[in-house]
Amino acid sequence: MSTHLTVGGAPDRRSRVAWLLRVNRLLGTDPAFRSLPVFAAAFRGGCYDREVSVSTPSRWETGRTAVPWAAVRRYEELLGLPRNLLTATARTLWRYLAPAPVLDTAPVTAADDTLEDLLEQALSGAVMTGDDWDRLADGLCARPDVVLMPSGTWYGLAERLVGEMVIADDLPWMLRFETLNRLLNHPRGGRTVVLACAELAAGRARSTATEIVCALDNCGHPDAADRVLAELAAPSGPLAHRGAVMACFRKVGYRHFDRAQLRTLVRALRESPGTGPVADQVDPLRRYLARVHPEHARELLGGRGPVAPPPEPAPAPLAAAVRRITAPVWAIEPDLVPDTTVPAALVAETLTSPVFDVRLYSAFLLAATPYREPLADAVAAELARPSTARHAELAVPLLDALRILGDRRHRAVVKALAVRPGVPRRTAYVAVRALGHVAADDADSVFLRAAVAHHHTAWRLTRDPVSAATLESLVYALGMAARDDILAEIRADPGFLPAARTAAGGWLAIPAHRRTSALR
Q1: Confidence band of 348 (pLDDT split at 50, 70, 90)
Q2: Is residue 45 classed as helix, strand or coil in its secondary structure?
Q3: Residue 129, SS3?
Q4: pLDDT digits (tens, 9 = 90+) for 455-497
Q5: How far apart are alpha carbons 86 and 368 in whole angstroms?
Q6: CA distances from 149 to 133, 153, 156 (A)
Q7: CB–CB of 186/144 below 8 Å?
Q8: What is the DSSP letter of 207?
Q9: Nearest Cα to 361, choosing from 508, 487, 145, 217?
Q10: Are 133 and 88 in contact (CB under 8 A)?
Q11: Residue 45: strand pairing partners
């Protein structure tokens, strides 16, 4: 990437992984492990069968030496953290911030199950956890010349994986998204997985198409570039178009487009209005592309060419909000973690980067540390300020952050912004989308039905793209909450937004074993 999308001087991927390990050890529940000699003495065991000296974790935690994946897993074991919390986060960052496409990631540990057993499990009606998918990808990527029979096996794997991914959240989502990235680059299966993603995004998964199309950004197969450009030129839906725009940041950086394709991209961006609730990445992509390819700057930016201007700084109110949010966080054991360079950069990226994926992956990293709860509390407090709620440029990045960091303690502020009169419509749209992620299982029938009535009325009065997108996002939130009763009512209502009725039907058609799997 993606270092080209972060601000100058931002920590590199090794520094971020090093900080992830260091802060979890220093702020963990076992104070004895704050001592490096004690921690090093206890390190051998579990998935790590070698002794380490005191200097070894010190080099890992300062970024002087790359940490082996098995050692990241051992940190989880020693610190009593959920399995895959650190490994999945580190692998996600390692791929996203790579200066070149990451075609595979070495296995964390050897799988206990055979590849054949995991394949049978995935292709049946059995439950698949995120860890199962991760180990299945390990097995497939360890055998790049593997032949799967019958011929539709790769498609079936991809179809189920994507079907679970788009209804998963948090760590279960991350594990599936990383598995998809690995399968997209498999020498034998990659082309079929690209096809499956494209067909699902344009078909029954249209209501969750953004992340499916965006996943093609790391795939260097020519079919992936063709599919992304097809969604830009003739979108199958606004969410698929947004995913294609987001994929282009890295595909441009990785030189996945030839000259003719680059001209197609420039033409598509020039013709895109860049407005609406899901068009927020069009202008950042124009600016980025103009900077990387200044020969197209005037065509992309009009009179602002031929040299693209630097990214605009964060508005002063947002910069002030960042300072208020970070202040209470640094009060947590400051003597233990005196260097705040990395977390300060991560908070700034999470709240101010114009590129959605930069904000997303920085939030993921913060969410895998003890800073998660205090940060979420500070973000929620900022959203509760009346002045914040009135300004979308403040509220939107805060809501995007809270959808990663928040829990059920923060759902009330999201609910309020989703339906409160006078809230800017873009803010309401993002708040409705966040309802599907911030304690989505905290199903409040009275509120959900009131929200459906509120946004259905708004759509009937205006019939504009913002109200339609908000109503579709509310269906997404209902699906994430497994509120089949309300989804069935929407599907049966002939006066409801047709796209929302179709989306409701799609949620109701998801097999039970996939819903169960997506939670794990």
Answers
A1: very high
A2: strand
A3: coil
A4: 999 999 999 999 999 999 999 999 999 999 999 999 999 999 9
A5: 7
A6: 19, 6, 11
A7: yes
A8: G
A9: 217
A10: no
A11: 48
